[in-house]
Amino acid sequence: MARRIDVDSTLAMVTVYNNRAQLFHLATLELTPLTPNEDVVLVFSKGQWSEANRSTLQVNIKEGGNAIILRSVQFRTITSVEDVRPQKQALRDEIEVLVKEQRERKDELFVVKSTYDVYKAILNKVNNTSRNEDDVKYSETVTNFVLDPVAQEKMTSFVLTNLRDLTTKTREIEAKVEDVDRRLAQARSKLTACGGDEKRTSTEVAEVQIVVNAATKLQLLLSYITNNASWTPSYDLRVDSKQKVMTVHYNAVVRQSTLTDWNKVQLELSTASPHVGGDSPTLTKWNISLRPPYSSNRNTYGPSGGAAPPPPGMMMQQMMTNVMPTAPLAPPRPSAARPAMAESASVTTSSTSTTFAIVGRQTIKSDNTDVKVTVTQSDLPVHLRYSTVPKLDQHTYLKAKAINTTGCILLPGSVNTFADNQFIGKSTMDSTAPDEEFWTFLGVDDDVSCTRKLAHRRFVDKSGFMGAKKTRVEYKYVFTAKNGKRSAEELVVWDQFPVVEDKKISVSVTCPTKDANPGVRFEVNNLNAIEWFWDLKSNSTQTFEYSFHVDYPTDERITGLDGVS
Protein backbone atom coordinates (compact mmCIF):
# COMPACT_ATOMS: atom_id res chain seq x y z
CA MET A 1 0.00 0.00 0.00
CA ALA A 2 1.46 3.33 -1.10
CA ARG A 3 1.90 6.01 1.52
CA ARG A 4 -0.40 8.99 0.87
CA ILE A 5 0.87 12.49 1.62
CA ASP A 6 -1.34 15.56 1.51
CA VAL A 7 0.48 18.33 -0.35
CA ASP A 8 -0.18 22.04 0.01
CA SER A 9 0.23 24.01 -3.23
CA THR A 10 -0.20 27.58 -4.41
CA LEU A 11 -1.31 28.94 -7.76
CA ALA A 12 1.99 30.38 -9.01
CA MET A 13 1.66 30.91 -12.76
CA VAL A 14 -1.07 31.23 -15.39
CA THR A 15 -0.71 31.13 -19.17
CA VAL A 16 -3.71 32.70 -20.87
CA TYR A 17 -4.76 31.83 -24.42
CA ASN A 18 -7.47 33.42 -26.52
CA ASN A 19 -10.25 31.32 -24.99
CA ARG A 20 -8.81 29.40 -22.04
CA ALA A 21 -5.91 29.27 -19.60
CA GLN A 22 -3.32 26.88 -18.21
CA LEU A 23 -2.97 27.05 -14.43
CA PHE A 24 0.26 26.01 -12.68
CA HIS A 25 0.21 24.98 -9.00
CA LEU A 26 3.60 25.00 -7.26
CA ALA A 27 4.39 22.64 -4.38
CA THR A 28 7.58 22.19 -2.34
CA LEU A 29 8.07 19.40 0.23
CA GLU A 30 10.75 17.37 1.97
CA LEU A 31 10.59 13.62 1.27
CA THR A 32 12.33 10.83 3.16
CA PRO A 33 11.56 7.23 2.16
CA LEU A 34 10.41 4.97 5.01
CA THR A 35 11.46 1.91 3.02
CA PRO A 36 13.79 1.44 0.05
CA ASN A 37 12.15 2.53 -3.19
CA GLU A 38 8.98 3.53 -1.37
CA ASP A 39 5.76 4.09 -3.32
CA VAL A 40 4.27 7.47 -2.43
CA VAL A 41 1.09 9.17 -3.63
CA LEU A 42 1.13 12.97 -3.42
CA VAL A 43 -2.44 14.19 -2.94
CA PHE A 44 -3.28 17.75 -4.07
CA SER A 45 -6.63 18.59 -2.52
CA LYS A 46 -6.26 22.38 -2.61
CA GLY A 47 -7.42 23.63 -5.99
CA GLN A 48 -10.52 23.92 -8.12
CA TRP A 49 -9.86 20.64 -9.87
CA SER A 50 -13.49 20.22 -10.94
CA GLU A 51 -13.07 22.99 -13.54
CA ALA A 52 -10.06 21.32 -15.17
CA ASN A 53 -10.00 19.61 -18.52
CA ARG A 54 -9.12 16.20 -17.11
CA SER A 55 -7.04 15.13 -20.11
CA THR A 56 -4.69 18.13 -19.76
CA LEU A 57 -3.25 17.36 -16.32
CA GLN A 58 0.57 17.49 -16.34
CA VAL A 59 3.37 17.49 -13.79
CA ASN A 60 6.78 19.10 -14.17
CA ILE A 61 9.52 18.24 -11.67
CA LYS A 62 11.45 21.46 -11.00
CA GLU A 63 13.81 20.19 -8.28
CA GLY A 64 14.71 16.84 -6.71
CA GLY A 65 13.84 14.78 -9.73
CA ASN A 66 17.02 12.68 -9.48
CA ALA A 67 15.78 11.07 -6.24
CA ILE A 68 12.37 9.94 -7.48
CA ILE A 69 10.71 8.05 -10.29
CA LEU A 70 7.47 9.49 -11.65
CA ARG A 71 4.83 6.81 -12.13
CA SER A 72 1.59 8.60 -12.97
CA VAL A 73 -0.48 11.74 -12.57
CA GLN A 74 -4.26 11.72 -12.54
CA PHE A 75 -7.44 13.28 -11.22
CA ARG A 76 -9.40 11.20 -8.75
CA THR A 77 -12.79 11.53 -7.12
CA ILE A 78 -12.69 10.62 -3.42
CA THR A 79 -16.02 9.77 -1.78
CA SER A 80 -16.26 9.93 2.01
CA VAL A 81 -19.09 8.56 4.18
CA GLU A 82 -19.91 10.37 7.42
CA ASP A 83 -22.25 9.24 10.22
CA VAL A 84 -24.46 12.28 10.74
CA ARG A 85 -26.66 10.84 13.52
CA PRO A 86 -24.81 12.81 16.24
CA GLN A 87 -25.20 15.99 14.20
CA LYS A 88 -28.91 15.34 13.70
CA GLN A 89 -29.43 14.73 17.43
CA ALA A 90 -27.56 17.92 18.28
CA LEU A 91 -29.80 19.82 15.84
CA ARG A 92 -32.94 18.30 17.39
CA ASP A 93 -31.75 19.38 20.85
CA GLU A 94 -31.01 22.88 19.52
CA ILE A 95 -34.46 23.07 17.94
CA GLU A 96 -36.10 22.05 21.21
CA VAL A 97 -34.29 24.80 23.10
CA LEU A 98 -35.16 27.38 20.43
CA VAL A 99 -38.85 26.41 20.43
CA LYS A 100 -38.95 26.91 24.20
CA GLU A 101 -37.19 30.28 23.90
CA GLN A 102 -39.57 31.29 21.10
CA ARG A 103 -42.58 30.50 23.31
CA GLU A 104 -41.14 32.49 26.23
CA ARG A 105 -40.40 35.52 24.07
CA LYS A 106 -43.89 35.54 22.60
CA ASP A 107 -45.44 35.26 26.09
CA GLU A 108 -43.29 38.17 27.24
CA LEU A 109 -44.38 40.18 24.23
CA PHE A 110 -48.04 39.44 24.97
CA VAL A 111 -47.70 40.71 28.56
CA VAL A 112 -46.00 43.93 27.47
CA LYS A 113 -48.60 44.64 24.78
CA SER A 114 -51.45 43.94 27.24
CA THR A 115 -49.95 46.32 29.80
CA TYR A 116 -49.63 48.94 27.06
CA ASP A 117 -53.34 48.57 26.26
CA VAL A 118 -54.27 49.04 29.96
CA TYR A 119 -52.27 52.26 30.26
CA LYS A 120 -53.74 53.47 26.98
CA ALA A 121 -57.26 52.93 28.33
CA ILE A 122 -56.41 54.80 31.55
CA LEU A 123 -55.09 57.74 29.54
CA ASN A 124 -58.25 57.88 27.44
CA LYS A 125 -60.40 57.72 30.60
CA VAL A 126 -58.49 60.52 32.29
CA ASN A 127 -58.62 62.80 29.25
CA ASN A 128 -62.31 62.15 28.52
CA THR A 129 -63.75 62.39 32.11
CA SER A 130 -65.97 65.51 32.67
CA ARG A 131 -65.02 68.07 35.29
CA ASN A 132 -68.64 69.18 35.87
CA GLU A 133 -69.64 68.36 39.48
CA ASP A 134 -73.19 67.51 38.43
CA ASP A 135 -71.92 64.90 35.95
CA VAL A 136 -69.46 63.18 38.32
CA LYS A 137 -70.86 59.94 39.70
CA TYR A 138 -67.65 58.39 41.02
CA SER A 139 -66.40 57.95 44.54
CA GLU A 140 -65.22 60.93 46.48
CA THR A 141 -61.58 60.09 45.76
CA VAL A 142 -62.14 59.90 42.03
CA THR A 143 -64.29 63.00 42.15
CA ASN A 144 -61.55 64.95 43.91
CA PHE A 145 -58.99 63.69 41.35
CA VAL A 146 -61.14 64.67 38.38
CA LEU A 147 -61.81 68.11 39.80
CA ASP A 148 -58.08 68.64 40.61
CA PRO A 149 -56.20 69.74 37.42
CA VAL A 150 -52.79 69.31 39.08
CA ALA A 151 -53.48 65.71 40.05
CA GLN A 152 -54.85 64.95 36.59
CA GLU A 153 -51.72 66.41 34.94
CA LYS A 154 -49.46 64.27 37.13
CA MET A 155 -51.48 61.19 36.28
CA THR A 156 -51.27 61.92 32.56
CA SER A 157 -47.49 62.39 32.75
CA PHE A 158 -47.14 59.10 34.66
CA VAL A 159 -49.16 57.17 32.08
CA LEU A 160 -47.31 58.69 29.09
CA THR A 161 -43.93 57.78 30.62
CA ASN A 162 -45.00 54.17 31.04
CA LEU A 163 -46.38 54.05 27.48
CA ARG A 164 -43.03 55.21 26.09
CA ASP A 165 -41.15 52.61 28.15
CA LEU A 166 -43.53 49.87 27.03
CA THR A 167 -43.11 50.89 23.37
CA THR A 168 -39.32 50.57 23.67
CA LYS A 169 -39.70 47.23 25.46
CA THR A 170 -42.03 45.97 22.71
CA ARG A 171 -39.48 46.74 20.00
CA GLU A 172 -36.70 45.00 21.92
CA ILE A 173 -38.76 41.84 22.43
CA GLU A 174 -39.95 41.81 18.79
CA ALA A 175 -36.28 41.92 17.67
CA LYS A 176 -35.51 38.97 19.95
CA VAL A 177 -38.48 37.05 18.55
CA GLU A 178 -37.23 37.66 14.99
CA ASP A 179 -33.76 36.44 15.97
CA VAL A 180 -35.17 33.26 17.53
CA ASP A 181 -37.34 32.64 14.45
CA ARG A 182 -34.30 33.01 12.18
CA ARG A 183 -32.12 30.63 14.23
CA LEU A 184 -34.95 28.12 14.45
CA ALA A 185 -35.44 28.19 10.66
CA GLN A 186 -31.70 27.67 10.11
CA ALA A 187 -31.58 24.71 12.50
CA ARG A 188 -34.57 23.07 10.85
CA SER A 189 -33.03 23.64 7.40
CA LYS A 190 -29.76 22.00 8.51
CA LEU A 191 -31.67 19.05 9.92
CA THR A 192 -33.51 18.60 6.64
CA ALA A 193 -30.24 18.84 4.68
CA CYS A 194 -28.75 16.00 6.72
CA GLY A 195 -31.15 13.60 5.08
CA GLY A 196 -30.46 10.06 6.21
CA ASP A 197 -28.09 8.85 8.87
CA GLU A 198 -25.11 8.90 6.46
CA LYS A 199 -23.72 11.77 4.38
CA ARG A 200 -21.67 11.07 1.26
CA THR A 201 -19.27 13.76 0.03
CA SER A 202 -17.31 13.66 -3.25
CA THR A 203 -14.06 15.61 -3.53
CA GLU A 204 -11.89 16.08 -6.61
CA VAL A 205 -8.16 15.72 -5.98
CA ALA A 206 -5.06 15.46 -8.14
CA GLU A 207 -2.70 12.59 -7.41
CA VAL A 208 0.95 12.18 -8.38
CA GLN A 209 2.33 8.68 -7.84
CA ILE A 210 6.10 8.47 -7.42
CA VAL A 211 8.80 6.13 -6.17
CA VAL A 212 11.13 7.76 -3.63
CA ASN A 213 14.68 6.41 -3.81
CA ALA A 214 16.37 8.85 -1.42
CA ALA A 215 15.66 11.78 0.83
CA THR A 216 15.15 14.91 -1.23
CA LYS A 217 13.62 18.34 -1.41
CA LEU A 218 11.00 18.01 -4.13
CA GLN A 219 9.57 20.94 -6.06
CA LEU A 220 7.00 20.36 -8.77
CA LEU A 221 4.49 22.19 -10.93
CA LEU A 222 1.07 20.67 -11.47
CA SER A 223 -0.79 22.18 -14.42
CA TYR A 224 -4.09 21.82 -16.26
CA ILE A 225 -6.20 23.64 -18.85
CA THR A 226 -9.47 25.35 -17.96
CA ASN A 227 -12.01 27.41 -19.89
CA ASN A 228 -13.59 30.77 -19.02
CA ALA A 229 -10.43 32.83 -19.48
CA SER A 230 -9.16 34.94 -22.37
CA TRP A 231 -7.04 37.90 -23.40
CA THR A 232 -7.20 40.39 -26.27
CA PRO A 233 -4.64 42.94 -27.48
CA SER A 234 -5.35 46.61 -26.96
CA TYR A 235 -3.29 49.57 -28.15
CA ASP A 236 -2.89 53.23 -27.33
CA LEU A 237 -1.10 55.03 -30.17
CA ARG A 238 0.12 58.52 -29.28
CA VAL A 239 1.54 60.56 -32.13
CA ASP A 240 3.59 63.72 -31.65
CA SER A 241 3.30 65.46 -35.03
CA LYS A 242 6.07 67.95 -34.23
CA GLN A 243 8.60 65.36 -33.11
CA LYS A 244 7.27 62.85 -35.69
CA VAL A 245 7.21 60.11 -33.05
CA MET A 246 4.56 57.50 -32.29
CA THR A 247 4.50 55.98 -28.81
CA VAL A 248 2.96 52.53 -28.98
CA HIS A 249 1.40 51.31 -25.74
CA TYR A 250 0.91 47.61 -26.36
CA ASN A 251 -1.53 46.31 -23.74
CA ALA A 252 -3.43 43.13 -23.06
CA VAL A 253 -6.93 42.98 -21.63
CA VAL A 254 -7.24 39.84 -19.49
CA ARG A 255 -10.46 38.49 -18.03
CA GLN A 256 -11.46 35.26 -16.31
CA SER A 257 -14.47 33.67 -14.63
CA THR A 258 -12.94 30.45 -13.38
CA LEU A 259 -13.68 29.12 -9.91
CA THR A 260 -10.75 30.86 -8.24
CA ASP A 261 -9.06 34.26 -8.11
CA TRP A 262 -5.55 34.51 -9.53
CA ASN A 263 -3.70 36.27 -6.74
CA LYS A 264 -0.20 37.60 -7.43
CA VAL A 265 0.60 35.09 -10.15
CA GLN A 266 3.24 35.14 -12.84
CA LEU A 267 1.21 35.87 -15.95
CA GLU A 268 1.98 34.75 -19.48
CA LEU A 269 -0.03 35.50 -22.61
CA SER A 270 0.13 33.15 -25.56
CA THR A 271 -1.00 33.53 -29.15
CA ALA A 272 -1.25 29.77 -29.58
CA SER A 273 -4.66 28.53 -30.70
CA PRO A 274 -5.28 25.14 -29.19
CA HIS A 275 -8.45 25.63 -31.16
CA VAL A 276 -13.51 53.60 -37.54
CA GLY A 277 -12.69 56.44 -36.18
CA GLY A 278 -10.56 59.05 -37.93
CA ASP A 279 -10.41 57.14 -41.19
CA SER A 280 -10.98 58.60 -44.63
CA PRO A 281 -13.49 56.95 -46.99
CA THR A 282 -12.25 54.58 -49.66
CA LEU A 283 -13.11 54.42 -53.32
CA THR A 284 -15.20 51.52 -54.55
CA LYS A 285 -14.86 49.59 -57.76
CA TRP A 286 -16.60 51.49 -60.61
CA ASN A 287 -18.06 49.20 -63.26
CA ILE A 288 -19.59 50.02 -66.62
CA SER A 289 -20.97 47.52 -69.14
CA LEU A 290 -23.33 47.02 -72.06
CA ARG A 291 -25.42 44.60 -70.02
CA PRO A 292 -28.27 45.75 -67.78
CA PRO A 293 -27.65 45.76 -64.05
CA TYR A 294 -27.92 42.34 -62.40
CA SER A 295 -29.94 43.47 -59.40
CA SER A 296 -33.52 44.46 -60.12
CA ASN A 297 -33.63 46.83 -57.17
CA ARG A 298 -30.60 48.96 -58.12
CA ASN A 299 -31.33 52.65 -58.25
CA THR A 300 -31.50 54.03 -61.80
CA TYR A 301 -31.11 57.56 -63.03
CA GLY A 302 -32.41 59.23 -66.18
CA PRO A 303 -34.36 57.79 -69.11
CA SER A 304 -31.62 55.33 -69.99
CA GLY A 305 -31.86 53.67 -66.60
CA GLY A 306 -28.14 53.92 -65.90
CA ALA A 307 -26.99 52.59 -62.55
CA ALA A 308 -26.00 54.95 -59.77
CA PRO A 309 -22.33 55.38 -58.95
CA PRO A 310 -21.05 53.20 -56.11
CA PRO A 311 -22.14 54.44 -52.66
CA PRO A 312 -19.46 55.88 -50.36
CA GLY A 313 -20.18 53.25 -47.71
CA MET A 314 -18.62 50.48 -49.83
CA MET A 315 -14.86 50.77 -49.50
CA MET A 316 -11.94 48.88 -50.92
CA GLN A 317 -8.96 47.78 -48.95
CA GLN A 318 -6.40 49.39 -51.26
CA MET A 319 -7.16 52.81 -49.76
CA MET A 320 -5.61 51.75 -46.47
CA THR A 321 -2.06 51.53 -47.81
CA ASN A 322 -0.33 53.63 -50.41
CA VAL A 323 1.64 51.96 -53.17
CA MET A 324 4.05 54.85 -53.67
CA PRO A 325 7.14 54.38 -51.47
CA THR A 326 8.00 56.99 -48.88
CA ALA A 327 11.33 58.24 -47.66
CA PRO A 328 13.12 56.16 -45.00
CA LEU A 329 11.96 56.96 -41.49
CA ALA A 330 14.33 59.05 -39.44
CA PRO A 331 15.06 58.10 -35.83
CA PRO A 332 12.79 59.85 -33.32
CA ARG A 333 13.98 63.24 -32.17
CA PRO A 334 14.41 63.75 -28.42
CA SER A 335 11.46 65.36 -26.75
CA ALA A 336 11.53 67.72 -23.81
CA ALA A 337 8.97 65.71 -21.86
CA ARG A 338 8.28 62.05 -22.50
CA PRO A 339 6.07 59.78 -20.39
CA ALA A 340 7.77 57.20 -18.21
CA MET A 341 8.53 54.02 -20.11
CA ALA A 342 6.88 50.86 -18.85
CA GLU A 343 8.74 47.61 -18.39
CA SER A 344 8.28 45.32 -21.37
CA ALA A 345 7.32 41.68 -21.30
CA SER A 346 9.88 39.12 -22.35
CA VAL A 347 8.95 37.52 -25.65
CA THR A 348 9.38 33.91 -26.69
CA THR A 349 8.62 33.04 -30.30
CA SER A 350 8.16 29.61 -31.81
CA SER A 351 7.19 28.56 -35.31
CA THR A 352 3.49 28.64 -34.43
CA SER A 353 3.03 31.08 -31.56
CA THR A 354 4.39 33.90 -29.44
CA THR A 355 4.36 34.04 -25.65
CA PHE A 356 4.61 37.26 -23.61
CA ALA A 357 5.82 36.92 -20.01
CA ILE A 358 4.36 39.94 -18.19
CA VAL A 359 6.67 41.73 -15.76
CA GLY A 360 5.72 41.49 -12.08
CA ARG A 361 2.99 39.60 -10.27
CA GLN A 362 -0.59 40.09 -11.41
CA THR A 363 -3.96 39.64 -9.70
CA ILE A 364 -6.99 38.75 -11.82
CA LYS A 365 -10.28 38.30 -9.96
CA SER A 366 -12.70 35.61 -11.09
CA ASP A 367 -15.50 38.07 -11.87
CA ASN A 368 -14.86 38.51 -15.61
CA THR A 369 -13.69 42.08 -15.06
CA ASP A 370 -11.26 43.42 -17.67
CA VAL A 371 -7.73 43.88 -16.33
CA LYS A 372 -5.26 45.77 -18.52
CA VAL A 373 -1.61 44.76 -18.31
CA THR A 374 1.34 46.21 -20.20
CA VAL A 375 3.05 44.07 -22.83
CA THR A 376 5.50 46.68 -24.09
CA GLN A 377 5.92 50.38 -24.83
CA SER A 378 8.03 51.74 -27.66
CA ASP A 379 8.76 55.00 -29.49
CA LEU A 380 8.64 54.66 -33.27
CA PRO A 381 9.56 57.30 -35.87
CA VAL A 382 6.66 58.13 -38.18
CA HIS A 383 6.13 59.51 -41.66
CA LEU A 384 3.11 61.84 -41.86
CA ARG A 385 0.94 62.07 -44.94
CA TYR A 386 -2.37 63.71 -45.81
CA SER A 387 -4.97 61.72 -47.72
CA THR A 388 -8.24 62.77 -49.33
CA VAL A 389 -10.96 61.37 -51.59
CA PRO A 390 -12.72 64.55 -52.79
CA LYS A 391 -15.09 62.51 -54.95
CA LEU A 392 -16.63 61.12 -51.74
CA ASP A 393 -15.62 63.46 -48.92
CA GLN A 394 -14.56 67.11 -48.69
CA HIS A 395 -12.31 66.48 -45.69
CA THR A 396 -8.59 65.73 -45.65
CA TYR A 397 -7.26 63.09 -43.28
CA LEU A 398 -3.84 62.94 -41.65
CA LYS A 399 -2.25 59.53 -41.27
CA ALA A 400 1.06 58.23 -40.02
CA LYS A 401 3.24 55.37 -41.17
CA ALA A 402 5.53 53.54 -38.75
CA ILE A 403 7.62 50.39 -38.80
CA ASN A 404 7.03 47.84 -36.07
CA THR A 405 10.37 47.81 -34.27
CA THR A 406 8.86 46.77 -30.93
CA GLY A 407 10.30 43.28 -31.33
CA CYS A 408 6.78 41.85 -30.91
CA ILE A 409 4.13 40.91 -33.40
CA LEU A 410 1.26 43.40 -33.21
CA LEU A 411 -1.83 41.23 -33.06
CA PRO A 412 -5.26 42.33 -34.28
CA GLY A 413 -6.94 44.40 -31.59
CA SER A 414 -8.68 47.64 -30.68
CA VAL A 415 -6.79 50.93 -30.95
CA ASN A 416 -7.21 54.25 -29.17
CA THR A 417 -5.48 56.92 -31.25
CA PHE A 418 -4.20 60.23 -29.89
CA ALA A 419 -2.59 63.02 -31.89
CA ASP A 420 -0.77 65.74 -29.96
CA ASN A 421 -2.54 64.64 -26.75
CA GLN A 422 -5.97 64.89 -28.39
CA PHE A 423 -8.14 61.77 -28.60
CA ILE A 424 -8.88 61.05 -32.26
CA GLY A 425 -11.00 57.93 -32.11
CA LYS A 426 -11.10 54.18 -32.02
CA SER A 427 -10.00 51.84 -34.77
CA THR A 428 -8.44 48.41 -35.14
CA MET A 429 -4.91 47.11 -35.60
CA ASP A 430 -4.20 44.54 -38.29
CA SER A 431 -1.67 41.82 -37.64
CA THR A 432 1.77 43.41 -38.08
CA ALA A 433 4.95 41.37 -37.94
CA PRO A 434 8.23 42.75 -36.54
CA ASP A 435 9.88 45.20 -38.98
CA GLU A 436 6.65 45.43 -40.99
CA GLU A 437 5.17 48.86 -41.66
CA PHE A 438 1.66 49.93 -40.70
CA TRP A 439 -0.50 53.02 -41.06
CA THR A 440 -2.82 54.71 -38.61
CA PHE A 441 -5.25 57.52 -39.33
CA LEU A 442 -5.08 60.61 -37.14
CA GLY A 443 -8.38 62.21 -38.08
CA VAL A 444 -9.44 65.27 -40.06
CA ASP A 445 -7.03 68.16 -40.61
CA ASP A 446 -8.41 70.65 -43.11
CA ASP A 447 -5.38 72.95 -42.99
CA VAL A 448 -4.47 70.89 -46.03
CA SER A 449 -7.39 70.63 -48.48
CA CYS A 450 -8.30 69.58 -51.98
CA THR A 451 -11.37 70.36 -54.08
CA ARG A 452 -12.60 68.52 -57.18
CA LYS A 453 -14.62 70.18 -59.93
CA LEU A 454 -16.10 68.68 -63.10
CA ALA A 455 -14.79 70.94 -65.89
CA HIS A 456 -16.79 69.25 -68.65
CA ARG A 457 -18.62 66.07 -69.62
CA ARG A 458 -18.95 65.86 -73.40
CA PHE A 459 -20.48 63.31 -75.81
CA VAL A 460 -18.81 62.90 -79.22
CA ASP A 461 -19.97 60.63 -82.06
CA LYS A 462 -17.22 58.98 -84.10
CA SER A 463 -16.69 56.17 -86.55
CA GLY A 464 -14.96 53.04 -85.42
CA PHE A 465 -13.48 50.03 -87.19
CA MET A 466 -15.34 49.00 -90.38
CA GLY A 467 -17.52 52.11 -90.11
CA ALA A 468 -19.15 51.10 -86.83
CA LYS A 469 -20.54 54.10 -85.01
CA LYS A 470 -19.08 54.82 -81.60
CA THR A 471 -19.95 57.28 -78.88
CA ARG A 472 -17.24 58.84 -76.78
CA VAL A 473 -17.90 60.39 -73.37
CA GLU A 474 -15.12 62.73 -72.28
CA TYR A 475 -14.61 63.67 -68.63
CA LYS A 476 -12.34 66.40 -67.33
CA TYR A 477 -11.84 67.32 -63.67
CA VAL A 478 -9.80 70.09 -62.08
CA PHE A 479 -8.33 69.56 -58.59
CA THR A 480 -7.15 72.43 -56.41
CA ALA A 481 -4.88 71.52 -53.49
CA LYS A 482 -4.07 74.03 -50.74
CA ASN A 483 -1.52 73.82 -47.93
CA GLY A 484 -2.30 76.28 -45.17
CA LYS A 485 0.49 75.08 -42.89
CA ARG A 486 3.86 76.69 -42.32
CA SER A 487 5.64 73.49 -43.26
CA ALA A 488 5.80 71.52 -46.49
CA GLU A 489 3.37 68.59 -46.48
CA GLU A 490 2.73 65.50 -48.57
CA LEU A 491 -0.79 65.02 -49.95
CA VAL A 492 -2.28 61.94 -51.59
CA VAL A 493 -5.41 62.47 -53.68
CA TRP A 494 -7.58 59.53 -54.74
CA ASP A 495 -10.00 59.21 -57.64
CA GLN A 496 -10.97 56.51 -60.11
CA PHE A 497 -12.00 55.64 -63.65
CA PRO A 498 -14.40 52.88 -64.73
CA VAL A 499 -13.58 49.19 -64.84
CA VAL A 500 -14.65 47.72 -68.18
CA GLU A 501 -16.75 44.56 -68.10
CA ASP A 502 -17.34 44.30 -71.86
CA LYS A 503 -14.83 44.16 -74.71
CA LYS A 504 -16.95 46.60 -76.73
CA ILE A 505 -16.14 49.31 -74.21
CA SER A 506 -12.78 51.01 -73.86
CA VAL A 507 -11.56 53.49 -71.28
CA SER A 508 -8.46 55.65 -71.65
CA VAL A 509 -6.89 58.06 -69.18
CA THR A 510 -5.62 61.11 -71.05
CA CYS A 511 -4.29 63.06 -68.06
CA PRO A 512 -2.13 62.33 -66.27
CA THR A 513 0.05 59.98 -68.26
CA LYS A 514 3.65 59.05 -67.62
CA ASP A 515 4.71 60.35 -71.04
CA ALA A 516 2.72 63.61 -71.09
CA ASN A 517 3.18 64.40 -67.38
CA PRO A 518 6.63 63.13 -66.40
CA GLY A 519 6.82 65.28 -63.27
CA VAL A 520 3.58 64.02 -61.77
CA ARG A 521 3.79 61.11 -59.32
CA PHE A 522 0.79 58.84 -59.56
CA GLU A 523 -0.11 55.17 -59.38
CA VAL A 524 -3.07 53.09 -60.56
CA ASN A 525 -4.18 49.92 -58.78
CA ASN A 526 -6.03 46.91 -60.15
CA LEU A 527 -9.43 48.44 -59.39
CA ASN A 528 -8.64 51.49 -61.54
CA ALA A 529 -8.25 53.72 -58.51
CA ILE A 530 -5.69 56.42 -59.20
CA GLU A 531 -3.67 58.22 -56.55
CA TRP A 532 -1.58 61.35 -56.94
CA PHE A 533 1.31 62.21 -54.63
CA TRP A 534 1.89 65.93 -54.19
CA ASP A 535 4.60 67.69 -52.22
CA LEU A 536 2.94 70.95 -51.21
CA LYS A 537 5.09 73.85 -50.14
CA SER A 538 4.04 75.85 -47.10
CA ASN A 539 1.11 78.23 -47.68
CA SER A 540 0.82 77.23 -51.32
CA THR A 541 -1.87 76.26 -53.84
CA GLN A 542 -1.53 73.82 -56.73
CA THR A 543 -3.97 72.75 -59.43
CA PHE A 544 -3.92 69.67 -61.61
CA GLU A 545 -6.19 68.08 -64.16
CA TYR A 546 -7.61 64.61 -64.48
CA SER A 547 -9.32 63.45 -67.67
CA PHE A 548 -10.41 60.23 -69.30
CA HIS A 549 -12.83 59.13 -72.00
CA VAL A 550 -15.10 56.13 -72.52
CA ASP A 551 -15.87 54.68 -75.99
CA TYR A 552 -18.81 52.35 -76.61
CA PRO A 553 -21.09 51.35 -79.54
CA THR A 554 -23.69 54.02 -80.23
CA ASP A 555 -26.51 51.50 -80.64
CA GLU A 556 -25.80 49.90 -77.25
CA ARG A 557 -27.04 51.09 -73.86
CA ILE A 558 -24.19 51.62 -71.43
CA THR A 559 -24.76 51.40 -67.71
CA GLY A 560 -22.75 52.98 -64.94
CA LEU A 561 -22.08 56.43 -66.43
CA ASP A 562 -25.37 58.23 -65.82
CA GLY A 563 -25.37 60.41 -62.76
CA VAL A 564 -21.56 60.59 -62.69
CA SER A 565 -20.25 63.97 -61.54
From TrEMBL:
<protein>
    <recommendedName>
        <fullName>DUF4139 domain-containing protein</fullName>
    </recommendedName>
</protein>
<feature type="region of interest" description="Disordered">
    <location>
        <begin position="291"/>
        <end position="312"/>
    </location>
</feature>
<dbReference type="Pfam" id="PF13598">
    <property type="entry name" value="DUF4139"/>
</dbReference>
<dbReference type="InterPro" id="IPR011935">
    <property type="entry name" value="CHP02231"/>
</dbReference>
<keyword id="KW-0175">Coiled coil</keyword>
<feature type="coiled-coil region">
    <location>
        <begin position="163"/>
        <end position="190"/>
    </location>
</feature>
<feature type="domain" description="DUF4139">
    <location>
        <begin position="221"/>
        <end position="553"/>
    </location>
</feature>
<dbReference type="InterPro" id="IPR037291">
    <property type="entry name" value="DUF4139"/>
</dbReference>
